Amino acid sequence: MVCMSSLLKDLRYILLLVQWDLMKIVRRVIFVAMRATWFVIQVVFFGPVIAHMVNARGIGLDVSSYYSFYLLGVYTSILFTITASRAYDIAEEFEEGIIEYQLSLPMNRKILALGRAIGSGIASTLFTLPMFLTVIILAKEFDLLAIVISIVSALIFSIAISGFVLTTTLSIKSSDATDIIMGVLDAILVRLSTIFYPAVILKNIAPYYYAAIINPLSHLADLLRIFYSFEEFREIVIANPEAMASYILGLFIGFTVLAMYVIEKKIEGGGWR
Amino acid sequence: MSEKAVEIINLVKRFGNFVAVDDISLTIYGGEIFGLLGPNGSGKTTTLLTIATVYKPTSGDVRVYGYSVVSDGDKVRKMVGIAFQESKALGIDKPYDLLLWHAKVVGYSGEEARKVVKDVMEDLGLWEHRNKYFYQLSGGTRKKVEIAKVLIQKPKVAIFDEPTAQVDVVSKHYLWDKIRELKEEGSTIIIATNDMFEAERMCERIAIMYKGKVKAVGTIKELKDLVPLGDTIELELASYADQHVLDMLSRFGKVQGLGNKVIIYVNRGEEVAVDIIDVLRRSGVKVARIMVKEPSLDDVFFYIAGAKLKEEIS
Ligand SMILES: Nc1ncnc2c1ncn2[C@@H]1O[C@H](COP(=O)(O)OP(=O)(O)O)[C@@H](O)[C@H]1O
Ligand SMILES: [Mg+2]
Fold first, then answer.
1. Which of A139, A233, B295, B313 has its CA 20 to 30 A from that of B246?
2. ipTM of this predicted complex?
3. Which structural domain, as residue segments, surrounds residue B25?
4. Is there a contact between A268 and B97 if contact means CB atoms under 8 Å apart?
5. What's the pTM value of the predicted model, to 2 decimals?
6. Nearest CB to A96 within list B54, B88, B104
C-alpha cells in the first residue's frame, strides 16, 4: 500500500514535470513556426528536385519512392534538431535559476530527471507533429497503425535524446560549450546517417557506412520508412526492423538511466558559465 | 529548548579553490526564527542552498530533523521550502502559472491548489499581477512571488533568503507578519539578511557570518552584551556637571561631560543606572533626565567583525 501510494506520487510528479515543458512550448510559437516553414520549403521545393537527381544515379528506387524515403529522413532530422535544441532551453533555465528551484523541490532526483526527459521528449515530438502530418500527406500514406507506431517510435527516440541533452547540458554547465557541442552533433549526426542516402549507397564508403550504423538517426529514419513501405525499403535500410527498434529502445533506456544517475549523484546548483 | 530542526556540522563549501563556507557549525531549534546576518559574500546563501540540498557540501553535513542532506536528500526536501534571494523564473513565466504548478508539486490537489494560490496571491497583493510576464514585474513583486511559494508550501523548515530586499517599507512589515504567522503555524524559520533592522525585528537568535565563518551566535540580548562598555547612560543634571561630579561617576565607566549633560559608557546599563541615581542622590546632585541605550546590532556587528571590516565598508 505504501509502495503503491509512493508510486502514484512519483507518477504525479512526472505528469507535473511534463506539464512544465508543455507550459513552455505554448510560449515558443515563433520558434515552431520558423522550423515548420523551413520544413515545408525543404520538402515541397527541394525534396522533388533531389528525388529526381538521386534517381538519375540509380539507387534502385523510383522517384516517388525516393521522395517518401527523403520525407521520413527530413522528418527524423528535424525531430533530432528540435530535441537537441532543448539544450538551449535547459541552459536558459539554469541561468535563470529554474534548475536550482527544481533541485529544491520535494521530489526524488531520479524522478526529476525522468520527468524532465519525458516532458522534453513529449514537447519536442508535439512540436514536430504538424511536420509529421505534412509528411503523411505528401507521401500519401494513411495507414493508421503505421502512423501510431511511428509517433510512438519518434517519442521514444526523442525522450532518449532528451535524456542525453539533459545529462550533457547540466554536466558541462556552460552556454558556450552547449552551443558548440549541440551544433557539432547536429551537423555530424545528420550527415553521417541514412537521412538522405540509403544504406546501400553508403556501403561503398566504409567509414561513412560504419558511422551511419552506430548513428541513432539512421535507425529512426529507416525504422519509420519500414513502417510505411515495408517491402520496398527492406533491402536498402541499415538493419532489420527488430534490430533498429531494439537500438532505439536501448538508447531510450540507456540515456534515461544515465540522466537519472547523473542528476541524482552529480548535479548541483551554481557554477554556470 | 525544543528539538533540533537543523544541525549544521562542520560544513565546508568550496567553489574551485574559493572557500565560500568555512567549517561552520550551528544548531537551529524547532519553532524558532533564526537569522543569518552578514554582509554580501559572507556565505549566507551558500549555507541556505546547502540546507535545501541545492548545493552539496564539500565536507561536513547538514541534518534536517536528523536526516542528512548528503545521504537522505529526498527526506530533507520533503521538509524544507526556500524563497530564493533571486527570483527563480523565466521571463516567459507568469506568477499564477508558476505558483499553481508549485502548489501542485508540494502536494495540493487541483482544486485546493487553485484556492490556496488565489488566497496567498490576494493576501500579498499579487493577484493583479497574476498574468503578467516576469520581465514586467518589479524586483519587489518578484520577491513576493518567491515568498508566496513558501507561504503556500508551509514547510516544516521555511527558508527566506533576504526576503525583503527591494521591497517597499509597508510591504516589508506585512511580509514580516506573514513570516511570523508561518512560525505560529509550526514552521521553523531561517532568514538570511544583511539588514540589521530586519534581524532585530524578526529573529529570536542570530548567527553573525563574515567571510564564510560564523563569528557569534546568540539571542540579540546575548550578542549585545558581548560588546564591552557597549551600553551608554545619558544623564541630564539640573545643574552644571562639575569635575567633582564627573570624578564621582568615573568609577562606573568611561565618562564624558558637557555642560549639564554627562555620558557614561558601561556594561549592563539597566543595573548600573540604578546605582548611579543612588550615588548622585546621596551627594545632593539633582537628575533631570536619565536614558539608557543598548548598543545597536551595527555596533555588535562592527565589534565582532573587527575594525578592519569598518574600514572596508566605509
Ligand atoms: N556558484 C558559485 N560559484 C563560485 N563562487 C560562488 C558561488 N556562489 C557563491 N560564490 C561566492 O561565495 C561567496 C559567498 O557567497 P554567498 O553565499 O552568496 O554570500 P551571501 O549570501 O552572504 O551574500 C561569495 O564570494 C560568492 O562570490
Ligand atoms: Mg546571499
1. B295
2. 0.90
3. 4-224
4. no
5. 0.89
6. B88
